[in-house]
Amino acid sequence: MTLDKIDLTILRLMQENSRISNIHIAKELNMAPSAVLERVKKLEQKNVITQYSAKINPNAVDLKLLAFISMKSSQSLGCTTTADELAKIKEVQEVHVIAGDDCFLVKVRTADSASLMELMRSSFSKIPNILSIKTTIVLETVKEDQSLNIPEL
Amino acid sequence: MTLDKIDLTILRLMQENSRISNIHIAKELNMAPSAVLERVKKLEQKNVITQYSAKINPNAVDLKLLAFISMKSSQSLGCTTTADELAKIKEVQEVHVIAGDDCFLVKVRTADSASLMELMRSSFSKIPNILSIKTTIVLETVKEDQSLNIPEL
DNA sequence: ATATAAAAAGAATTATATTCATATTATTTA
DNA sequence: TAAATAATATGAATATAATTCTTTTTATAT
């Protein structure tokens, strides 16, 4: 797809603020809103615009994290000791030994991303044989094992 | 700010698609659109949502790139030879020697990001003393030196 | 120069956002 | 616990924006 100046302006504006109205874009470009809409639709169809997304401040969320941890392959079979080490860390809520490139899936809860970094630096780095750690923020838990949540009577 | 399940659902939906309507979110949550709007505004004010942004497929754009190139500091004073080397590469449109941590600002044009990678691997890597390359995509050029564009008569 | 296709404009319609008064639900605190 | 207060939600009215569609303009090809 060949993009002209108008397309590029639309892309720039929507990259800055994807909730901008057609009318605003149209005013900026001195054209009719309907013409802008047509171009935006085309940019979506041709996969030039791949997604509209809200950026979320990770520090604002009470961070629940999933850490995917992999070990040096020579060590990856007998990994129960490492799992035990991970389970000892107080911020770590769950430890799962998993199949695939990563050996563990670890659920961690920290107050902010600085404390997560501190945790990774201080605790995780002490555990031998860890090769890599990939983390991702949990925004919402739709279903959760609540067997430990004993309800009051 | 304390985020409840409703806030987290809003965040999840808007992270997936920031152009979703209040009405859609409201239906998903079984609440009134006005209540959703109030929460979204609060999430914006409290800086939980930091930006709404369109993701653009870099391969769809005819890639104009700016590369910020730095050299090993011992070499950075006499950098004219490196500048000449960069200027020889056919995809390189402009080379500017600049002040600061980086020594060069280079404008490159490639058809897609794969060819950019190939260029960086094959040509740039052959130039001695390069320490780092940071690239950024140029979406729009508002003003450009056109002294080389001789208009037809 | 004419025919054809693509893009834009403008008006009408539909949908959505926004506002605001009222109602409901939580949270304090006496 | 009950009343007082604050926070949040509802629902209707209004304002704003998106969308559709026909006509017009502009660009491209024959």
UniProtKB/TrEMBL annotation, chains A, B:
Does the record carry Transcription as a key word? yes
Residues of the HTH asnC-type domain: 3-64
**Pfam families for the chain:** AsnC_trans_reg, HTH_24
**Cross-referenced InterPro entries, in alphabetical order?**
ArsR-like_HTH, AsnC-type_HTH_dom, Dimeric_a/b-barrel, Tscrpt_reg_AsnC-like, Tscrpt_reg_AsnC/Lrp_C, WH-like_DNA-bd_sf, WH_DNA-bd_sf
GO BP annotations listed = regulation of DNA-templated transcription; response to amino acid
> Can you tell me which residues the record assigns to a coiled coil?
none
Superkingdom of the organism of origin? Bacteria
Question: What SUPFAM superfamilies is this protein classified in?
Answer: Dimeric alpha+beta barrel (SSF54909), Winged helix' DNA-binding domain (SSF46785)
CDD domains in UniProt: HTH_ARSR
Keyword check for Transcription regulation, yes or no: yes
Q: Which UniProt keywords apply?
A: DNA-binding, Transcription, Transcription regulation
UniProt GO MF annotations:
sequence-specific DNA binding
GO-annotated cellular components:
cytosol
What protein name is recorded for this chain? Answer: Winged helix-turn-helix transcriptional regulator
User: Which species is the source of this protein?
Assistant: Pedobacter planticolens
